[in-house]
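Sequence in, structure out. Go.
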Amino acid sequence: MVKQTIIVRVRDGMSLAKGPRNENEENDVFSSYKQQRDFILQEISRGDLPSSNMTICVDELYCFRIMVESGICFMTLCDLSYPRDLAFLYLQDLQRQFDKLDKRFVEGISNPYCSIPKLGAIISNVREKYVDPRTQSNISKMMKSKMKGNLDAVTYDLSEIIERRQKQEMWEKMKRANLSEFKIWGSKKLEIIAMKGMPIATLIVVVVLLLWSSSLFKDEFW
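Output:
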């Protein structure tokens, strides 16, 4: 079953609309996956998940089905048992409804969710058609989709995405640390300190040379 749906603008992660949960669904089913959802959306906004159609497996029960089109991300949480093709057909149906909106208006949205009040109702109405995958209408849709073969999607495991992000952040920290060290040794303040210390160092070298020369002179004299 399609649990929850969210529509997000990719360039800045602005949440444009989200669909209601099923009335019979437990209140904490989707909220427990909110952190994973937000993390995935951040990765999409960064450009680290560039595929237009994606399945991201969260655990043994649920997965996210994601479609990115024209800078807009359509994302839904589904049971793993819910047919993959039907989930993407649902997202495509939402995308067609969304395309009817004025793009300039969509780009100008600055507040999450409340800017398109009718879109929540659109999500609810479209979702209602896809709740039961066993209806004749949905079976027919899936058969036509398989014949066309136009619903290819990349599958990721959430743990792999998290591990990749952790490695990237560690690498970025190392680069910043190296850059900071370079700035310290190449700073103007350190250059001034070095310039002030040069006369003292020169004097020490001269004294050492004089003592060494004096020692040689004494050895030759005796």
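Check: The first strand starts at residue 2 and ends at 9. The beta strands are 2-9, 14-18, 53-57, 62-69, 72-79, 154-157.
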